[in-house]
Amino acid sequence: MRLRSDAKCPDVAPVFRGAIVKLPVKQVRGVGLMVGVELARRIEAGIAKMLNGIAGVIAGTNVIRFLPALNTTRAEVDEGCASLRRRCEGRT
Fold first, then answer.
1. Is the CATH number 3.90.1150.10 carried by domain 9-88?
2. For the chain, which end, N or C, has fewer CB atoms within 10 Å of the first or last residue's CB respectively?
């Protein structure tokens, strides 16, 4: 598989991981943009839905696996992480 030459993954992946580790989470694991995030509490039904363009799926009682597109932008990472922070803190 060849990545498009304009794929942003190498630039955005460290930004995404850096933003995720600043959230109220217990552990972050994975490579590149595909990361599993273990939250400190049980996942509510709607928390793992699309977070402003960043897809997430429930992968355990308190784990979300993020699967963002390779062309995800830094702005989308910032918006998605802000949305996840609000949801983790009980705000919508």
1. yes
2. N
